Amino acid sequence: MAADVLDATFAALADPTRRAILARLMEGEATVTELAAPFAMSQPGISKHLRVLERAGLVSRGRDAQRRPCRLEAAPLKEAVDWLAGYRSYWEESYQRLDALLGELGHDGPDAAERETP
Amino acid sequence: MTPRREQGEGLTVRALPGTGLVLTRTFAAPRRLVFDAFTRPELLRRWHGARGWHLVVCEVDLRPGGAWRFVSRGPDGAEMGLGGVFHEVDAPGRLVQSEVHDGWEEGEALVTTVFDERDGRTAMTTTARYPSREIRDSVLRTPMERGAGEAYDRLAGVLTEMTMKGEPR
């Protein structure tokens, strides 16, 4: 996955309003008016966030000239999540080894770290 | 006390906008032990790495200005080296260190690790700032992709091993 696409995805997700918009769109398409309703924000304010989401490829707009409904584009979101998940699972595996080690050190008493196992 | 294996809470990884990365993980141990496990070579060698990767070089001069160097060897014999210098060493609560991976053309990462203890458990928060987006992304890609084929088999193996080690010996 290209670095600039990932970066656009993470930057888009860094804002709570944009995350809330994505959460709303997970339930289905919505117009700008519908999206703006739960927020204390003007439609132009919401439109600005939508443009960021569109540039990141996370949201697309319908062709209906009147309503231009917004819909969630899940693919880049999934790629970003999968990509972080790979890193996470590698280190989680390493930390599980550390869990086991800490368990041994703890059960062997506070001086366990001083003693070397062969 | 019955030696029951206690696990910490799962790792979370968050990419900050730009070049940062934040890792959080809780360990079921006091921070003195966790700090030792992160800074003493004889302990680091026992846990650092996964999926066939393990430390073959682990040098830690734990003092401000002191150098550290790790070399990990992977399942196919590939090696990955990284190292840096400690800026702050405040045992057992805080470490600040630079990090440079072999092959980076320029720049270094700044890594801050904080250990907070509550009720005998230790929450680790590691914040890494990489010199560029490309470098952060390359760190995120390696070494997981190199050993990805055997990843899940090995995870299952580790879980079984951990369960067995949880029994009294």
TrEMBL record, chain A:
Under CDD domains, the record lists: HTH_ARSR (cd00090)
Annotated HTH arsR-type domain residues: 1-92
Q: Which Pfam families match?
A: HTH_20
Gene Ontology molecular function terms on file: DNA-binding transcription factor activity
Q: Which Gene3D superfamilies match?
A: Winged helix-like DNA-binding domain superfamily/Winged helix DNA-binding domain
Looking up NCBIfam families in the UniProt record yields:
HTH_metalloreg
Cite the PANTHER family for this sequence.
SLL0088 PROTEIN, TRANSCRIPTIONAL REGULATORY PROTEIN
Protein name stated in the entry:
Transcriptional regulator
Its taxonomic placement starts with:
Bacteria, Bacillati, Actinomycetota, Actinomycetes, Streptosporangiales
Automatic annotation (TrEMBL), chain B:
InterPro entries per the UniProt record, alphabetical: ASHA1/2-like_C, START-like_dom_sf
Q: A Pfam family matched by this chain, by name?
A: AHSA1
Q: Which residues form the Activator of Hsp90 ATPase homologue 1/2-like C-terminal domain?
A: 29-159
Q: Which family does it belong to?
A: Belongs to the AHA1 family.
Kindly provide the name given to this protein in its UniProt entry: ATPase
